């Protein structure tokens, strides 16, 4: 019998039942399976997780925000202190480079997110306290008082991990127990993180089931969990195929789910910019497309351009970068063949191969970067097929015959997280910019100028999300505090409730003198007038 | 052939196709069908509505908020000027009294909502502009740039009407064309309102399809419309049965829907209050339960109490009010028999009849108010059956043997829009209050103290909504500006966008000097620093 790694249930590292199926991750650098085995969980385990998390959530809904913040801060510190060890674990399971990616970018970002969430919990800025003194009606966002299920993706073992990423931080900061599902590509990293989380939660005197972990389950069990009305909300980052199924299960019982799925992130290069700086833009594009072996939800997968001298120079510069490129391995065994199949489908539909990188000789989940092109006319014949996401370092350049055709192409774009527009430095591209940006706006969450979409800043003004099916709800972002916290808030109103029974943040007196509240229509840090 | 009333499509009052089925409303006071006939619409009409509304929405998304506000204000004024005529129409179709209900309460409230929405459009306070100067990232809520479908209920011919109610006002104020579906109980009132709306929209130079109206359709056509991805969002107020189906259709294509459905609105009377002022509370309860013939989504349908002397006095006082009560007719032919069937089911399940009012001798959709009781023990045997909403002037009093049983009953409550708790004037009920209110909190949207739930103030701090299936999303309210407007907002981010291309409200300079914006984490009416 293979020894199986334990699950974290209600504060206890628990052996799975003996009959449990198991899986192991693989080392993308070598292609070899790792020898750590993790259990697939069944409904009995899910029930235990849900019941424990339900109890914990009812406690957490009434726990002082300072205790939640203390946990998040301590956990951030623990990740910082164990960064080398965690990066080594994650590198082995994902193939992502320890430096700069894991140790200098993703882990620091993860720590920042946890600390931002702690700060938001402490300040209660996400709760938007609103006071109507004339009616004596007061409201704010509060915990749902039910658990949040967080399912992270393959491509971020830290920043979006169900056990420590942005959704996790937002759910805990707003007073919820989290049931984290490990992505099966990096269960060992996730387990180690959960160990650190449990220690930090215990030190902050939070309920034992504040943080729980399971690794994997059958699709049936997963959908049963997503559709269980004991859940308060779901945070999901991953593929559209899986996301749609989970969303349907949650929708059926009215559970709000927040989904960050996919899209091709169109980059439009206007004629003036093509003429002005074709090589510079080509290099930015290639860097963005090759970064992380193209395994970002904001990877630029579609470039919209216009024929002409500038375009030829752009394409030549980009082709040169693709030709010579050798990238790191992909995250899992299936991804290189998926990418090859996607490329094949585009070629079959009429795209042409522009350039292809080299596949390193060594073993592992390696892949060659691919640059394709297609005419605007061909694209317009079947816009859907040319917008299938190619997950990995591949992109399709659509070459419009002229500006009119460029507009027609934009009008056929599906939903994406982002849309970038490059334009000439002076204002001569502005009329076309105006046209294209107004077509893009309802199709995307974030509009960029002269900038590639990869690199999602953790900013209060970020929108990392978009119209369905790029995101799950057009009004919410997965990244950036305090906005991402509001996803997990229930709006609760106190109508004529006696003052001593009100939450401190809704009493006339501002509890800290620093909390921003909307009182009679005005945002203020002052007290409400005593007449209220 | 019966002449059919026209539909409002793309700014033109349009005769339905000849083959169309039709319906008529009835006069609830007499029970007689009215002789105005309205068409049922098919897919061809729906397609025309959607296409016209799509075009209009793309224009409205970029229309000056002052023009939207001007339309809403002018429309409010037109309703005010035609109040007598509108009240007469609505009285005939709904049986609701012209005074005070329609002319003194509902129409003024409707006018206030339209004007509040205009004010919110003008001030842009719903958009929550957020600026991160260090990253040069800016975001705000914006129009979805797609139409909003608004379906109103039977019980508010004005305040929640798809053509002029709160959802309508919120959708237009945020830059959307509205496709309004009349409730089939009051199509004539709705048509007259649409006439006024069209005049006001034309005067404000809004696109002709800003306001469109159809009256009714088959369930198949309705679900096809709700599931059409040409829609941006749905606002629905009505029954849980219909709401669930529409929500499922919208969810399948990722369209955000906002649903305000049902619930029994539990009123808990704590032991001290029962002893202190049983008659006073009984009278408040009866007034609330009988108001509008009990046809409110916030009608108190369930009272939780505790045995004892106070309870006997409470019940006697309430029974006396029910015994003598003669109420106005219900809104439609089916409602009295639905109510009778609901009462019969409760009696069958073990409830006892406490008091029954009289049915007026005259014809019409009249009904006798009904007061039932059941023991806490019987309730706990089947909590679901005793929480089926009885739409109309009927309520069930649950009598717990003691406080412990009262807590157990509260723990079995389903989702509702509201929860009221009556307690003694001093603090001797407070321990039990604490327990009950913490159980209630995650099950309701609005908590009231010493107050019945009917009467939903149009307040910025209102939460009219609740957990599913009382509401559709726990984070949003259907009533109160600017919060209700935010339901229809898409969060859009501008990353490194050149200053002259930014929406005015996201530029460094505050466009009005009055707009509240969150700049680097601080709510302010000042400009952003020029370094940003």
UniProtKB/TrEMBL annotation, chains A, B:
Residues making up the signal peptide according to the UniProt record: none
Family annotation (Pfam families): Aldedh
Positions of the Aldehyde dehydrogenase domain: 13-424
Keyword line: Oxidoreductase
Gene Ontology MF terms: oxidoreductase activity, acting on the aldehyde or oxo group of donors, NAD or NADP as acceptor
InterPro entries named in the record: Ald_DH/histidinol_DH, Ald_DH_C, Ald_DH_N, Aldehyde_DH_dom, Aldehyde_DH_Superfamily
Domain of life per record: Bacteria
Keyword Lyase found: no
Cross-referenced PANTHER family: ALDEHYDE DEHYDROGENASE-RELATED (PTHR43353:SF3), SUCCINATE-SEMIALDEHYDE DEHYDROGENASE, MITOCHONDRIAL (PTHR43353)
Protein name in the entry: Aldehyde dehydrogenase family protein
């Amino acid at each position: 019998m293979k020894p199986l790694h334990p699950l974290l249930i209600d504060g206890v590292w628990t052996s799975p039942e003996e009959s449990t199926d198991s899986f192991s991750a693989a080392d993308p650098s070598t292609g070899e399976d790792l020898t750590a085995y993790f259990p697939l969980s069944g409904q009995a385990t899910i029930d235990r997780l849900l019941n424990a998390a339900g109890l914990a959530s009812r406690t957490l809904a009434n726990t002082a925000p300072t205790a939640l913040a203390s946990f998040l801060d301590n956990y951030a510190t623990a990740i910082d202190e164990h960064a080398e060890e965690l990066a080594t674990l994650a590198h082995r399971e994902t193939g992502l480079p320890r430096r700069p990616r894991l140790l200098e970018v993703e882990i620091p970002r993860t720590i920042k997110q946890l600390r931002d969430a702690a700060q938001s919990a402490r300040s209660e800025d996400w709760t938007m306290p609103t006071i109507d003194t004339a009616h004596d009606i007061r409201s704010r966002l509060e915990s749902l008082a039910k658990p949040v299920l967080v399912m992270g993706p393959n491509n971020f073992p830290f920043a979006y991990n169900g056990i420590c990423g942005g959704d996790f931080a937002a759910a805990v900061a707003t007073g919820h127990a989290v049931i984290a599902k490990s992505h099966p590509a990096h269960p060992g990293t996730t387990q180690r993180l959960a160990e650190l989380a449990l220690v930090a939660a215990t030190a902050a005197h939070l309920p034992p089931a504040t943080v729980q972990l399971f690794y994997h389950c059958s699709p049936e069990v997963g959908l049963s969990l997503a559709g269980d009305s004991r859940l308060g909300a779901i945070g999901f980052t991953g593929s559209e195929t899986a996301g749609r199924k989970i969303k349907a299960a949650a929708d059926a019982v009215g559970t709000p789910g927040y989904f960050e799925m996919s899209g091709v992130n169109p980059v439009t290069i206007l004629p003036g910019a093509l003429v002005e700086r074709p090589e510079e833009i080509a290099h930015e594009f290639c860097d963005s497309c090759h970064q992380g072996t193209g395994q970002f939800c904001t990877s630029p997968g579609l470039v919209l351009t216009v024929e002409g001298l500038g375009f030829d120079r752009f394409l030549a510069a980009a082709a040169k970068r693709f030709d010579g490129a050798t990238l790191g391995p992909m995250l899992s065994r299936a991804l290189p063949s998926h990418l090859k199949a996607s490329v094949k489908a585009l070629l079959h539909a009429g795209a042409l191969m522009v350039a292809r990188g080299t596949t390193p000789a060594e073993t592992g989940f390696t892949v060659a970067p691919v640059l394709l092109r297609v005419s605007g006319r061909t694209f317009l014949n079947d816009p859907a097929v040319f917008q299938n996401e190619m997950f990995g370092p591949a992109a399709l350049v659509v070459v419009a015959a002229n500006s009119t055709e460029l507009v027609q192409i934009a009008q056929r774009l599906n939903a994406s997280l982002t849309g970038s527009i490059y334009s000439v430095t002076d204002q001569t591209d502005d009329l076309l910019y105006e046209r294209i940006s107004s077509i893009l706006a309802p199709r995307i969450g974030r509009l960029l100028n002269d900038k590639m979409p990869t690199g999602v800043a953790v900013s209060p003004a970020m929108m990392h999300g978009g119209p369905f099916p790029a995101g799950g709800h057009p009004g919410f972002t997965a990244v950036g505090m305090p906005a991402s916290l509001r996803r997990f808030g229930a709006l609760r109103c106190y109508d004529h409730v006696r003052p001593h029974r009100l939450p401190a943040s809704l009493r006339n007196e501002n509890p800290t003198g620093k909390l921003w509240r909307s009182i009679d229509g005005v945002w203020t840090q002052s007290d409400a007038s005593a007449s209220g």
